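Task: sequence design from structure.
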């Protein structure tokens, strides 16, 4: 049986994003990055509540949404398990890109940018890079 996955939810109460959606988004990100794989068990609602101090019903709502999307499956008495991944490329394949991005993020921080500034800059560049892909 798979151990509890190495995913730690971080809740930003100032983000304006509903707490349950933050859990859904962070789970999907972990799936895309290969941090979660089919068979892995998500943290229990109790574990998430202890780590984040959020309402257990919020965790359950997030897990129900992930189940509705076919990404996880609740097994009564056992936990919630990943049923499929979202990774386009294997995690090992993106290691050089991840290293370059981490280096860039460190340089941005050293230049005095705050996390929100870096996020805004990255998102703007990302949107511009992929905007042509959306034309149908």
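Answer:
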């Amino acid at each position: 049986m798979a151990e509890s996955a190495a995913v730690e939810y971080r809740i930003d109460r100032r983000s304006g994003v509903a707490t349950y959606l933050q859990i859904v988004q962070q789970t999907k990100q972990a799936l895309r990055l290969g941090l979660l794989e089919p068979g892995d068990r998500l943290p229990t609602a109790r574990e998430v509540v202890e780590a984040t101090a959020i309402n257990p019903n919020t965790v359950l709502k997030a897990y129900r949404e992930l189940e509705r999307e076919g990404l996880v499956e609740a097994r009564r008495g056992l936990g919630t398990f990943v049923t499929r991944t979202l990774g386009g490329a294997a995690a090992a394949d993106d290691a050089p890109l991840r290293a370059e991005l981490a280096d860039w993020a460190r340089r941005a921080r050293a230049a005095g940018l705050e996390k929100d500034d870096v996020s805004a800059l990255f998102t703007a560049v990302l949107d511009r890079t992929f905007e042509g892909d959306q034309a149908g």
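The chain has five helices and two strands.
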